[in-house]
Amino acid sequence: MTALLYTLGVLAFVLAILVSIGLHELGHLVPAKKFGAKVPQWFIGFGPTVWSRQIGETEYGVKAIPLGGYVKIVGMLPPGAEELVEETTYDEDGEPVHRVRRSNTGMFTQLISDARAAEWEYVKEHDADKLFYRLPWWQKVIVMAGGPTVNITIAFLIFLGIFATVGIKTQEAVPGQPVVDYVADCVVPASESGRECTEDDPVAPARASGIRVGDRIVSLNGTEIEEWSQLQELIRANDDGRAVIGLVRDGKPTEVTTNTTVTARPTSADDATLRQVGFLGVSPRTRIVTETGGVLFTLEQMGHMTVDTVQALGTLPLKVYDVGQAILGLEERAIDSPVSIVGGGRFAGEAASDTSVDVTDRLLFLLTLIASFNFFIGMFNFVPLLPLDGGHIAGALFEALRRGLARLFGRPDPGHVDVAKLLPVAYVVGLAMLVMGVVLILGDLIVPLHLAG
């Protein structure tokens, strides 16, 4: 039964992500068609075609490798007057076909010319008014922003449903001087949190000192304790120093002495970055606080998510490098390291098969996971670098700025922005994305993260 639930959880997550990818591509396709651009293909996946169907001028289908999707919009790259020579030939039906032959040599110019040739090889004469690069800049922005906006909208709708009904449940220490609710037996690395102690694990300082469940902590090294967060800060700042702990046990004051130990731990619930801090090994009595809200509350929470995601994107290459180090056994994998769709599927499977958790909570976790992946996909695609959607948006905005300035100063229209000149950058970024994707997939297979971690 557990294996079946695990499999169902994985399949549900993968199916949801594939549907999200398909909707992302529809987010490009629908406005592109609305604005008159030619869209010959819409596919989920890559590699050999598993199924397809022609509807109008567009072929819709599914390919064998479900690691993404694409929509083909004709004329993304404008012809380069200096680099390309256009010529007209005729196909077997007698239709005129505009072909582009290369007239330049050199590594980068040849790459650009090859891309233009592939883009323009079968553009027919009657397609001249259906080319993407000829659209007004604002239509280009709408078309390219449509995909990631769909992902963010999916995330918003899921989060709205959760926040408006179940709300955000947070666990916080009971106010006042902390009462011990749990005493750790040993010091377990944060990345392995939840596992059983082994003979190699050092005894937790709290356990060694004799602290018991139910003890109320009233002081540390002479400092009176008023709440749990204050005690946490003092313990972390104590490193491996001597700790004299004042307690109230069964209504009577007592005192124990130990040495806190240094270990890598997250420093707060909002920051999972591991730092070397002092560790005692106790947890306080807690209570569950629930906060609910509607549209404005959801937008507020997603605003916080946006800040966190932008910060995460800034450190993504470094974190992927750390995952590579973990794969080689050079360091432990951090609990806040990014995961691929493989890791997401593992989380979904583990959550679905955890029968100790209520079915409703398992479903909520799965929905939250799907929403989080959609939100990240949307935000990632807005990064202003080719080949991401944000790169094309940046190109359209630059075109608007350049043409606007030309009109303002009475200069000739500079024409369309030639994004093809940035293709070498796109190839580098694309290669980096491929490498990061492979590293994360390998990391999720070799040094996986688990929900308990």
UniProtKB/TrEMBL annotation:
Tell me the GO molecular function terms: metalloendopeptidase activity
Q: Where is the signal peptide?
A: none
Quote the Pfam families the UniProt record gives. PDZ_6 (PF17820), Peptidase_M50 (PF02163)
TM region positions: 141-163, 363-383, 425-447
Peptidase M50 domain mapped to chain residues: 12-404
Q: Which CDD domains match?
A: S2P-M50_PDZ_RseP-like
Domain PDZ: from-to ranges: 204-248
By its UniProt entry, which InterPro entries does this protein fall under?
PDZ_6 (IPR041489), PDZ_sf (IPR036034), Pept_M50_Zn (IPR004387), Peptidase_M50 (IPR008915)
Q: How does it sit in the membrane?
A: Multi-pass membrane protein
Q: Which GO annotations describe the biological process of this protein?
A: proteolysis
Q: What Gene Ontology cellular-component terms does the record carry?
A: membrane
Tell me where it resides. Membrane
Provide the protein name.
RIP metalloprotease
Which organism is this protein's natural source? Nocardioides seonyuensis
The upper taxonomy is: Bacteria, Bacillati, Actinomycetota, Actinomycetes, Propionibacteriales
